[in-house]
């Protein structure tokens, strides 16, 4: 692909050939955050720009906070893969994808440098304002593809982004005792929890049975919203945090 004008004024353009038309003329209404999960930023960037990789993102944020734009925002980058959120399955057509240089779980899940997070915040704010993206639609790859994906990981500072006006967040309830639900449990309380996860956006089937798939969805929720313990067990802390997140969504606030 030939060069293009950056949508984000601080971005340097490095074109990737991997993109297409957004389906049905859709406009982005979601920002999806990823980590690269590769040993080096240079290797990840090369992969995102290789014709044979068949993957890309709109933006790449280096460890030093430098922002590169690989695909114009009006185009459909190839970053989400098989995914789901709030009834939608073509997440690539709905989202702006941001790859954040970080070795991820394969590399020991290093901390995100502060200058990198500042750049992510500024980029998300800029994209969100230009496309009128709701805060609750700034998500991680693991939210839309539980089990299959775990990025940007439990060390990603979602609370810091929220303090800067990016994303949806409530302070997680402390981990304590009390009743919990786990794999193999059945009944109305499990069904109620499934309904809550589904209402928030996860691809949770309402069956009344706590399956392996549901455990993966609970883990994805914990990884984003209650990262102190990620075990797929729906304890009081997990359920209370989910309940308060739902209650604070604009569509449920009166």
The CATH superfamily of the largest domain turns out to be: Peptidoglycan recognition protein-like
CATH class of the largest domain: Alpha Beta
The amount of helix comes to: 25-40%
What share of residues are in beta strands? 5-15%
Stretches where pLDDT is under 50 for at least 5 consecutive residues are: none
**Oligomeric description of these chains:** single chain
Total beta-strand segments? 8
The main sheet orders its strands as: 1-5-4-7-3-8
What is Rg?
18 Å
Q: Report how far apart the termini are.
A: 48 Å
Whole-number average pLDDT? 97
What is the element string, with H for helices and E for strands? EEEHEEEHEHEHHHHH
Q: What's the main sheet like?
A: 6 strands, mixed
Briefly note the CATH topology name of the largest domain: Lysozyme-like
Number of helices: 8
What's the shape? Answer: globular
Q: Could you describe the 3D structure shown?
A:
This protein is α/β, with parallel strands linked by helices and 254 residues long. It folds into two domains: 12-163, Lysozyme-like; 188-252, PGBD-like superfamily/PGBD (Muramoyl-pentapeptide Carboxypeptidase, domain 1, Orthogonal Bundle). It contains eight helices and eight strands; from the N terminus they run βββαβββαβαβααααα. Strands 1-5-4-7-3-8 form a six-stranded mixed beta sheet. β4 (59-61) and β5 form a beta hairpin. α6 (188-200) packs across α8 (236-247).
Topology:
Layout: E1 12-13, E2 19-20, E3 30-35, H1 41-48, E4 59-61, E5 67-69, E6 76-77, H2 91-94, E7 95-100, H3 114-131, E8 138-140, H4 141-144, H5 158-163, H6 188-200, H7 212-225, H8 236-247
Parallel strand pairs: 1-5, 3-7, 3-8, 4-7
Antiparallel strand pairs: 2-6, 4-5
Helix pairs in contact: 6-8
């Amino acid at each position: 692909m030939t060069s293009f004008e950056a949508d984000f004024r601080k971005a340097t353009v490095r074109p990737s050939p991997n993109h297409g038309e957004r389906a049905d003329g859709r406009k982005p209404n979601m920002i999806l955050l990823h980590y690269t999960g590769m040993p080096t930023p240079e290797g990840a960037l090369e992969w995102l720009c290789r014709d044979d990789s068949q993957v890309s993102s709109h933006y790449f944020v280096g460890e030093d906070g430098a922002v590169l734009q690989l695909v114009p925002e009006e185009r459909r980058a190839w970053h989400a893969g098989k995914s789901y959120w709030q009834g939608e399955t073509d997440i690539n057509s709905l989202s702006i994808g941001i790859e954040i240089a970080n070795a991820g779980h394969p590399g020991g899940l290093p901390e995100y440098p502060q200058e990198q997070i500042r750049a992510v915040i500024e980029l998300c704010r800029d994209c969100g304002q230009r496309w009128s993206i709701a805060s609750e639609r700034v998500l991680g790859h693991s939210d839309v593809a539980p089990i299959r994906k775990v990025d940007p990981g439990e060390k990603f500072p979602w609370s810091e982004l929220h303090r800067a006006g990016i994303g949806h967040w409530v302070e997680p309830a402390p981990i304590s005792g009390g009743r919990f639900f786990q794999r193999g449990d059945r009944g109305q309380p499990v069904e109620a929890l499934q309904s809550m996860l589904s209402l928030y956006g996860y691809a949770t089937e309402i069956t009344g049975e706590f399956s392996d798939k549901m455990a993966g969805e609970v883990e994805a929720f914990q990884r984003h919203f209650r990262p102190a313990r990620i075990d797929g067990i729906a304890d009081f802390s997990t359920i209370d945090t989910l309940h308060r997140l739902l209650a604070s969504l604009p569509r449920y606030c009166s």
